[in-house]
Amino acid sequence: MAELHDVTRVPSALRVHQFHGLQAGPKLIVLGAVHGNETCGTQAIEALLPELDSGRLQLTRGCLTLVPVTNPLAYRQGTRQGERNLNRRLRPEPDPREFEDCIANVLCPLLAAHDVLLDLHSFHTPGEPFAMLGPENNTGPLEPFAHADAEAAWAAHLGPRRFVEGWLDTYAAGVSERQARAGSTVPAVALDPQYGVGTTEYMRSVGGYGVTLECGVHGDPEGAVVGLHAIRQTLAWFGMAEVPLAPPVAEPEVMRIVSVTDRLHAGDRFAEPWRSFDPVRAGQPIGWRHDGQVLSAPDDGWVVFPNPAADVGQEWFYFARRSARRLR
Fold first, then answer.
1. What is the pLDDT of residues 149-205, one digit of tens each?
2. Coil, helix or strand for 275?
3. Cα dihedral value 183, 186, 188, 191, nearest 10
4. Domain at 17-257, CATH from 1.10.3720.10, 3.40.630.10, 2.60.120.260, 2.30.40.10
5. CA 306 to CA 280: how far, in whole Å?
6. In the chain, what's the furthest Cα-to-Cα distance?
7. In angstroms, rounded to a whole number, what is the distance separating the alpha carbons of residues 219 and 124?
């Protein structure tokens, strides 16, 4: 294995809490702080642990695994990533060179040992919580999947009314664009065909399913409330604990991400102080390149995950259209 780090400054272990019901049931894993500056999941899990330890909340069936801090280096630094983005190109690494490679070698087998994943995140700019869904059932080469109905039915009980699909398709197209303009400002990892694979995509690749729940803006205490509610509703949905199950969201709004735009120069700037899911009309300027080129909305839709502080060569914003998909 390649020489890695000074062990006096880099975390050397991943803290994992596991509870086994005395009756057989689903194997559920919940992750917090896959990105170190997204702490709502950590706070939600840490709020749940005393209830489980004291018996106020009892797991009656199945296995519940809780990982409060999935990327401890990034969490310690208060940054999105330690040495690279853990939620991109997630896979076991036989020759780990970066801290996140070492985490992946623990995390990937852990995911593969479970049936369902709930991954709790937050986002840059103000906006309401939403859930990221996987693809519909398919046998295609990019992300074959057979649990779309089960995934969507569960997601409808998590709390948010907004759902987003199209992640890996969009990343495949984004990688092609990066390859076409590859240069010194494009990180090598961003040119990998597996770049779009994060926790939920890896979970689906090993036969399970999962949802990424974006609980709100970074640092908002309400995000932990959203995350804790989602964990409880997941336990209720799968019959793993005696928790009341809330009804599914009445009028879900489903969108499809169709493109990702990278920041190519420090002088690239937004036309507005965009928030996630701000609506735009076809032809409306979203931003400008440093040389004056206008980046306009291709259709009526929404700006998603705008990041005014994005590093050069990294994702700057996404564009989404309304989806015809219905949650069952």
1. 999 999 999 999 999 999 998 988 888 888 787 665 666 666 776 788 999 999 999
2. coil
3. -90
4. 3.40.630.10
5. 13
6. 63
7. 10
